[in-house]
Each structure stands twice: as structure tokens, then as C-alpha cells.
Amino acid sequence: MFSYFGVLISVILGLALTHLVRGLSKLVQMRDTVKVYWVHVVWTFNIIIYVLCLWWGMYWWNNLNEWTFELFGFLAAYSTLVFVVASLLYPSEFSRDMDFEAYYYNNQRWFFGLLFVSYAIDIPETYWKSMVHLREVPAPYVVFLPTLLIIVGTAALSRNRKVQAALCIISLMLQLAYVNMSALQRIVAH
What's the chain's average pLDDT? Predict the structure, then answer.
């Protein structure tokens, strides 16, 4: 069942990655005419890491023998929400004079609100894998995810440019540290 379901997840998350990479590529191509906002670019990298980690984490479901429609629907909805989050960082098309700082703050509450919801949905998804004995909850997770929720909750509410700058960097460092800790934890376990 997972190989069938995995294709759907791969398509949805692949579309999210495609949208983000295409947006970055267009920023580079149009760098002389668009107004690039570095905080927006860092959040793009944050979401790329998130999508890749989620995609990697979905593979644990490969070992589940019995599937329910509820689980299928839950994981499909989770992946779809992550696609919507990614799509909020870049419009499908943008003009040569696009101001990405204005675009970022115009979409700030929606982007961070939906990102908050997607991070919150990760909690039952991660614990569900543990309950069906597919993977133990990583020890750093209990600190990592609540910290991310605080970061994106603050980012949703704050219009302060310095706060936004600090939060995007902190989020990037936190995600990279978590990926490294998780990789080290697996190496030590084996």
C-alpha cells in the first residue's frame, strides 16, 4: 500500500519543492529588476529543508502493514497543507518590478499561520509512527518542535523587521541542528 500512497505524497511534496526552487530561480534571473528581500529568501530555504525532512520522514510509513482511510487522508492533507505553505512564498507568476519585501509582509500572517498549523500537525504524525512501532520519537523532537511553534507564532504576529530577520536565521540554524542531531542519533544507535 505504501508504494501506491508514496507516489501521491511524492507528487505533492515534489510540487512544493518545484514551486520553491522555481521561485528562487526566477529571483536570480530577475535580480536586476525585482526587489529581493533576504528574509524571504531565508524562509524559502527553511521551507525547502522542511519539505525534504517531511518527505524523508514519510518513508517510515513504508513499514506499516495495515492502512486506514483516516491515516491516508490525514497524511495526504498534511502534505497538501505543506504545499500550500510553500506556494505562499512565491506567486505563480511575478512581474519584473515585484517587491518581495512587500509581498512577504502582505502574506505574513497566512504563511506563518498555516506553517504553524503544519508544524502542529507534525506532532500527531510523529507520535502516530511511534504508536504503531515504526519509529521512536527522536529525543530532540520534544524541544525542537515546540521551539519551531514559538518561532512561527511570533513571526505571524510581529511586523518588526529585526524580529523577522532574527527568527528566519534562528529557524534555519535550529532545523540544521535538528537534522544533524537526528543523523548523529541514528549513527550512534547503529
Answer: 91
